[in-house]
């Protein structure tokens, strides 16, 4: 978030706003004021409850928003170029060799009628990579017999295998940034960490930065350097993972932490924060968490100040009180 | 997934066709022999009672209905539908001789329909809600509403009578085929356009289409390779179902253009009460439609191997 | 009682049936405004022939069957040699085209509506019974349906017409008994789903007899599909009727039908285009209206039928 370093950043999203066109009423903003940045090789995470706009943010970076959605404000700077205003063709050229993405649903993300080999070759051709490298890549994502996989169709593979194929497809062009939208949510619990490890190991070897979208703090804690907490279409807190999670500077981050699954816990969603995420038509200029926040006061109806301390930033009126409460709670 | 299982599958499907065909033959039999009066139909109103009695005896109509039915099924099994009194020949060969002309017309119409419908359907799906989409939708509703025989008459009026570009009717050259094929294919084209449009809209919202865009593929590659391939199954399925309707339409179109196919033969046979010919025609057309549905199923299996055989 | 209901219906209550009159409490003005343009076009295209058909005996400018060789082959008004008394011209026997079109509307719509009522009653009954009682009855009925779907319906119509004497009532009968198949299929599919719903299960648990459940609980829920299918069937029947009459197998002179008018017109294509052009336009106009009306009804009445996507 620090402006001085913008030149060396890979991706800088600033005040991003994504709007949904509605037939009978005014446009609805589904992301409204999201800012964060990613440096080359960085492992970043975007966390928050469902409905906070994490996936939509990812798709707007890729230029792959659904038809009724569009970027209506802010900027998405990719190595100096603003993708929010770029031509479609310019963004298309980036997909594959520069930015790649892994999706939530491996079951439906591959064309059912095309062989794995064909679909990989399509991706490889964009980055001028040949058959030998494809086979090598399949080997690296853990297929014992890459040649056989090439001739198979998606329905012949398990969910985990398909997600490995997706990883191979995304990384075949050695992109600079990999966006991973809840890549293991749809997978069997037993193989989730295996797939994640594979994704991170390969990215590390290639020097690819990773932005993972997740609602699972235990995953994020282990695997990412920085964390951006999203709530109701905004990034409310950003910073190095360790310091954000050990000393949150936003009450929402604290709430997420206290509701996070412990080791061995397999709940799918974080549901224990009282109340629900306000829907986009309820968003206003004030702090959007105030309806569920134990610290909320009248002042929270005003736009909270962005508080930048060293490599961290957050937006809350009551940081001091929050920090004080944490000090009390910490055992001596 | 081997040759053997494909063979077993085809055999199974062929076996399934038998009861359907039997049912059709039975329905036709009871219509003609029980509801109708075949002797009266054949001899006309001027026959003497003696003639009628002799004819009934000769045709075995004095036997119990059940025996008649068995006899009838027996002869159908040997391909014998009786003799056409108009032609004085066995009915089945006459029908089979006319079949190629009808098939030429029907296949021509289907091809024309596909050539028109696929680009139009894809175009309106990818430009959904736009001007072209509305124009295509309006034209296809209109084309569906126009009876094909009237369209045929209008085409003759314009291209044969007024402009004199093409022959009015008959067969024998490629030029003779043009107008009947347009008349017959237009309605089918409208139907398939709507289908291509709706399948493409559905397919274009699938996750794997997003993946294809995510790989940096061009729009054309995504639409015409990834999406259209997946539209192939539903479109082929409806196209083949349309074939049945199309054959029905061909019967009338043939009369408009004096096209020497099954349709003309059948309409003539019905108005002349030549029931042997009618029964043979119905049988042949039913077999054709059933065979087509089998072919379409096999085609899907070839394309879409997710569907398991059996 | 309550327990068995919840047990039976666990997870099947995905889309509860609309309680009568609940969701649509909008004023008639709001309803009118919600009709799309195509719906309006449909209403107009169907409305005109319908009104004309009802008033036919009083509004024909000439007796539709009266022959006047001295007035034969007059062109429509506006063309050289036309007579203002014959607005749309005359045919080869000097009969007034406009009057014949009006009378033809009456015949075509009457055949369409009566045949569809007949087909609809058969199809609805078969669909309800096959879907609700299932088992062997369903198996037998559906085999018949499949067999009938395997042959073009025109073919079956031709066979029956070969046996019976042609005429208007034969035609209605034939079209009625050959068009019920699509109803049976659609309604059966819906009943199969409905009979697993909670409200049907509850009625069964209360010991309500089958026929009552079918009529009171299931039939209202298949009504939207029934209405849409019936509308579209009228179009099919009108086209089939005109095709058969055109072939000389349907309506017989002196009765009048649009299809029959086309037969005459075909012989005079080179000299009197209006004889064949105008009845065809009348068919197209009416059928277009019915198709648009059907599409709109489908969208308005039942999202399950999946209208324009």
TrEMBL record, chain A:
Q: Is the keyword Membrane assigned to this protein?
A: yes
Q: Where in the cell is it found?
A: Cell membrane
Signal peptide span: none
Is DNA repair included in the keywords of this UniProt record?
A: no
For this chain, one GO molecular function annotation is:
ATP hydrolysis activity
Recorded hits in Pfam families, A to Z, give:
ABC_tran, oligo_HPY
Q: What is this protein called?
A: ATP-binding cassette domain-containing protein
GO CC terms in record = plasma membrane
Taxonomically, what lineage is the organism?
Answer: Bacteria, Bacillati, Actinomycetota, Actinomycetes, Micrococcales
- Which family does the record assign? Belongs to the ABC transporter superfamily.
| Coiled-coil parts of chain | none
ABC transporter domain boundaries? 11-257
Q: Which organism is it from?
A: Nesterenkonia alkaliphila
List the membrane topology term(s): Peripheral membrane protein
Q: Which InterPro entries match?
A: AAA+_ATPase, ABC_Ni/Peptide_Import, ABC_transporter-like_ATP-bd, ABC_transporter-like_CS, Oligopep_ABC_C, P-loop_NTPase
> Mind telling me which PANTHER family this protein's record contains?
DIPEPTIDE TRANSPORT ATP-BINDING PROTEIN DPPD, OLIGOPEPTIDE TRANSPORT ATP-BINDING PROTEIN APPD
The protein's matches in NCBIfam families, at most eight in alphabetical order, are given as: oligo_HPY
Give GO BP annotations, semicolon-separated.
Answer: peptide transport
Which keywords has UniProt assigned to this entry?
ATP-binding, Cell membrane, Membrane, Nucleotide-binding, Transport
From TrEMBL, chain C:
Tell me how this protein sits in the membrane. Multi-pass membrane protein
Q: Where is the composition biased (Polar residues)?
A: 1-12
Span of domain ABC transmembrane type-1: 105-294
Keywords from UniProt, A to Z, are: Cell membrane, Membrane, Transmembrane, Transmembrane helix, Transport
Q: Which domain of life is it from?
A: Bacteria
**Swiss-Prot/TrEMBL GO biological process terms:** transmembrane transport
Locations listed in the record? Cell membrane
Q: A single GO CC term, please?
A: plasma membrane
Residue span of region Disordered = 1-27
**Regions crossing the membrane:** 35-59, 109-133, 140-161, 167-185, 226-251, 271-294
What's a Pfam family this protein contains? BPD_transp_1
The family classification in the record reads: Belongs to the binding-protein-dependent transport system permease family.
Spell out the protein name for this chain: ABC transporter permease subunit
Q: Which organism is it from?
A: Nesterenkonia alkaliphila
């Amino acid at each position: 978030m620090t402006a001085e370093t913008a030149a060396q950043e890979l991706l800088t999203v600033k005040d991003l706003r994504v709007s949904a066109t509605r037939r009978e009423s005014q446009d609805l903003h589904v992301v409204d004021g999201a800012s964060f940045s990613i440096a080359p090789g960085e492992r970043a995470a975007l966390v928050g409850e469902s409905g906070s706009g994490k996936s939509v943010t990812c798709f707007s970076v890729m230029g792959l928003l659904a038809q009724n959605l569009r970027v209506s404000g802010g900027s998405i700077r990719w190595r100096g170029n603003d993708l929010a205003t770029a031509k479609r063709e310019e963004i298309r050229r980036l997909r594959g060799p520069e930015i790649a993405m892994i999706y939530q649903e491996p079951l439906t993300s591959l064309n059912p009628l095309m062989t794995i080999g064909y679909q990989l070759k399509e991706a490889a051709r964009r980055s001028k990579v040949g058959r030998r490298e494809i086979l090598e890549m399949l080997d690296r994502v853990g297929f014992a017999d890459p040649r056989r996989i090439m001739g198979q169709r998606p329905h012949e593979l398990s969910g985990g295998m398909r997600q490995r194929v997706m990883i191979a497809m995304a990384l075949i062009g050695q992109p600079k940034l990999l966006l991973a939208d809840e890549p293991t949510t749809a997978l069997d619990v037993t193989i989730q960490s295996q797939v994640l490890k594979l994704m991170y190991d390969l990215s590390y070897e290639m020097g690819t930065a990773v932005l993972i979208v997740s609602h699972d703090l235990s995953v994020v804690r282990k695997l990412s350097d920085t964390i951006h907490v999203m709530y109701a279409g905004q990034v409310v807190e950003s910073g190095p993972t360790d310091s954000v999670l050990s000393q949150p500077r936003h009450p929402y981050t604290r709430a997420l932490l206290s509701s996070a699954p412990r080791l061995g816990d397999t709940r799918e969603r974080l549901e224990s924060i009282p109340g629900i995420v306000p829907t986009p038509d309820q968003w206003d200029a004030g702090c959007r968490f105030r309806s569920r926040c134990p610290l909320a006061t009248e002042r929270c109806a005003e736009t909270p100040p962005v508080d930048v301390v060293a490599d961290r930033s957050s937006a809350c009126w009551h940081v001091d009180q929050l920090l004080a409460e944490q000090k009390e709670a910490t055992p001596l | 997934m081997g040759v053997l299982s494909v063979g077993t599958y085809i055999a199974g499907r062929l076996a399934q066709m038998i009861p359907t065909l039997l049912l059709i033959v039975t329905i036709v039999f009871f219509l003609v022999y029980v509801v109708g009066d075949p002797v009266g139909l054949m001899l006309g109103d001027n026959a003497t009672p003696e003639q009628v009695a002799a004819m009934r005896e000769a045709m075995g109509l004095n036997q119990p209905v059940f025996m008649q039915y068995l006899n009838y099924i027996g002869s159908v099994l040997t391909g014998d539908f009786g003799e056409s009194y108009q032609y004085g020949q066995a009915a089945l060969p006459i029908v089979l001789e006319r079949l190629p002309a009808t098939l030429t017309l029907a296949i021509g119409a289907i091809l024309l329909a596909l050539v028109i419908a696929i680009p139009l359907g894809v175009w309106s799906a990818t430009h959904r809600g736009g001007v072209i989409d509305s124009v295509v939708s309006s034209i296809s509703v209109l084309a569906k509403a126009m009876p094909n025989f009237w369209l045929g008459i209008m085409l003759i009026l314009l291209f044969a009578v007024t402009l004199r570009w093409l022959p009015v009717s008959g067969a024998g050259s490629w030029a003779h085929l043009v107008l009947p094929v347009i008349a017959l294919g237009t309605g089918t084209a409208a139907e398939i356009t709507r289908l291509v449009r709706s399948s493409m809209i559905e397919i274009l919202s699938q996750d794997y289409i997003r993946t294809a865009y995510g790989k940096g593929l061009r729009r054309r590659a995504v639409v015409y390779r990834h999406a259209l391939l997946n539209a192939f199954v539903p479109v082929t399925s409806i196209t083949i179902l349309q074939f049945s309707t199309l054959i029905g339409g061909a019967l009338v179109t043939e009369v408009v253009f004096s096209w020497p196919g099954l349709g003309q033969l059948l309409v003539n046979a019905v108005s002349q009460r030549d029931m042997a010919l009618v029964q043979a025609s119905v049988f042949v057309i039913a077999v054709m439609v059933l065979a087509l549905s089998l072919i379409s199923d096999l085609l899907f299996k070839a394309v879409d191997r997710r569907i398991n055989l059996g | 009682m309550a327990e068995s209901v919840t047990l039976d219906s666990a997870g099947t209550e995905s889309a509860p049936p609309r309680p009568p009159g609940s969701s649509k409490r909008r004023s008639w003005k709001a309803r009118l405004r919600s009709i799309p343009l195509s719906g309006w076009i449909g209403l107009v295209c169907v409305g005109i022939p319908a009104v004309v058909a009802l008033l036919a005996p009083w509004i024909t400018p000439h007796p539709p069957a009266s022959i006047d060789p001295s007035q034969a082959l007059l062109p429509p008004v506006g063309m050289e040699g036309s007579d203002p008394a014959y607005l749309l011209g005359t045919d080869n026997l000097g009969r007034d085209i406009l009057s014949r079109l009006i009378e033809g509307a009456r015949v075509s719509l009457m055949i369409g509506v009566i045949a569809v009522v007949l087909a609809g009653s058969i199809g609805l009954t078969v669909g309800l019974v096959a879907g609700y009682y299932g088992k062997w009855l369903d198996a037998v009925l559906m085999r018949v349906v499949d067999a009938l779907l395997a042959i073009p319906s025109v073919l079956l119509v031709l066979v029956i017409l070969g046996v019976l004497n042609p005429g208007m009532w034969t035609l209605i009968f034939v079209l009625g008994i050959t068009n019920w198949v699509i109803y049976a299929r659609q309604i059966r599919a819906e009943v199969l789903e409905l009979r697993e719903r909670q409200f049907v299960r509850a009625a069964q648990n209360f010991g309500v007899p089958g026929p009552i459940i079918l009529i009171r609980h299931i039939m209202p829920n298949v009504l939207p599909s029934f209405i849409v299918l019936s509308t579209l069937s009228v179009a099919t029947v009108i086209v089939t009727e005109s095709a058969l009459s055109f072939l000389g197998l349907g309506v017989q002179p002196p009765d009048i039908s649009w299809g029959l008018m086309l037969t005459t017109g075909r012989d005079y294509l080179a000299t009197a285009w209006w004889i064949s052009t105008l009845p065809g336009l009348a068919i197209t106009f009416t059928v277009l209206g019915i198709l648009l009306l059907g599409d709109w009804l489908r969208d308005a009445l039942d999202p399950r039928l999946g209208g324009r996507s």
